[in-house]
Amino acid sequence: MSLRERHLWIAIVVTAGVWGLYGWRLVSHVAAGDLKGQGFAADMGGLFVLGLVLIAVGEGVLTLIARLAPRAHEREGAAERRAALTASHVSLMALIGLLSAVAATLFVLGLIGDPVLRPLLRWTTPANLLVLIANALLACLVLSELARYALTLAYLRTRR
């Protein structure tokens, strides 16, 4: 397995693990009814920063281990660059699609107005609603990155 493939697997495992745990905590807070409380935004903000630190440290340490593992001398070739570029294009289109879906949903909710927003604000505060929207945007980014990692791996395997 090449260093690039190892790094992609590391990125998939670390990203899915960290943001999966973050998502689980978010759903737990929502299920517990914490959206009416004042501490929800601070809790999720702290978890977000912790997630960023864990991603940086986790990928850094695991990449260092992957670099130290024995492997044949290798250089990135044209096939690897094409695979990464193709996967990046697909990932970008997925991100644009996901962000457009979130924006369209928010736009439609804004058009409908009070019939939708008034019941929504019974179970959350406006500030916590913004935190939920921010988390929807974060989910778009995470899904896009996971797609990029997985597609790069798949394209690398088909180009050999």
Notes on the protein architecture:
- This protein has 160 residues and is mainly α.
- 83% of the residues lie in helices and 0% in strands.
- Helix 1 (3-31) runs antiparallel to helix 5.
- The mean pLDDT is 88.
Number of E-type strands: 0
Q: Give the helices and strands as they follow along the chain.
A: HHHHH
Q: Work out the helix count.
A: 5
Helix content: over 70%
Task: Let me know the largest β-sheet.
Answer: none
Q: First CA to last CA: what distance?
A: 12 Å
Radius of gyration: 20 Å
Shape: elongated
Average pLDDT reading: 88
**Strand residues, percent:** under 5%
Note the quaternary state here. Answer: single chain
Low-confidence stretches: none
What class, by secondary structure content?
Answer: mainly alpha
Compact overview of the structure:
By secondary structure, the chain is an all-alpha fold.
Topology:
Elements: H1 3-31, H2 40-68, H3 78-112, H4 114-120, H5 126-158
Quickly list its features:
mainly alpha; 83% helix; 160 residues; elongated
